[in-house]
Amino acid sequence: MPRLSDTLLAACLGDPRTSLCADAERLCGLDHDGARTQLAALKPWLLEQQHLLWARKQEALLIWLQGPDCAGKDGAIRQVFSGLSPIGLSVHNFRQPSVAERAEGFLERYRRCLPAPGEIALFNRTPYEGAACDLFDGFCAVAEIPARLAQLAAFEDELAGRGIRLLKVYLQISRTEQKARLRKRLLDPRKHWKLCAADLDAHRQFQAREAHWAGILAASQRPQAPWQLIPANHKWLRDLLLASLLAREFERLDQHWPSPPLPFSLAELERA
User: Fold this and answer.
1) How does pLDDT run across 133-182, given as a tens digit for each residue?
2) 180 found inside a domain
3) How many domains does the chain have?
4) Which of 61, 79, 177, 259 is most buried, with most CB under 10 Å away?
5) Where does the Polyphosphate kinase-2-related domain start and stop, copy by copy (predicted)?
């Protein structure tokens, strides 16, 4: 099965317990053409594993995808999950919480989108926005962050108890790369719809936001629910790393086709 080896994955992924200052340009000895070929070869195996997950209906997979503006969350979802079946697959985008959502617990809008057994769900932005972006947007105070992190840890434990396997991924890009991607959006009329005034503010605050996220990632790095820090300056590397992490989760499930008693025999069918 053509995913990246655990050794190479460990070399490519950053360590959330240190900081986000690691080089987002790192290539890990891989190249564009080879990575694209490897990803294409991996997709049929991922589809087969998705069918197994759906047929067994025991566990569920939940992928939390986080990162700065322009980190490529949408692109990673398109590239890695486009080969999967839409049956049993859901993608949920989370923007700033609405007034009604702010009036309830910050985790409630995520609870409503959890996958059932046999399903895969992707969260484009994660509940950790409640401990990071909500602070910069003025929706919570610094004093509330420790309590929110404790709620998030309890939520992750709850997911595990319900048979929902969680993959937490942070896409790391540099400030220079973010600026280049924002510039491309400004120059391409087809991408103007992606821009808002808050994007410029967030870019100006890049270092402060990155430092805050580094603290959040370090504080929430738990053996039972670790963060996977992907260098995302290069989209082709980002996609192969994410697909390989997904493949590793499937491997850990060690799935086999269910073999229930047959409701009727071939002979009965032939006589019908």
Assistant:
1) 888 888 898 999 999 999 999 999 999 999 999 999 999 999 999 999 99
2) yes
3) 1
4) 61
5) 31-250
In a domain, 128, yes or no: yes
Is-above-0.90 flag for pTM?
yes
Nearest to 226 by CA among 202, 263, 254, 252: 252
Structural domain includes residue 257 = no
Residue 85 lies in a domain: yes
Instruction: Tell me if 168 sits within 8 A of 126, measured CB to CB.
Output: yes
- Written as six digits, the tokens of 93 are 């985008």
Rounded Cα distance between 93 and 110, Å, is 10
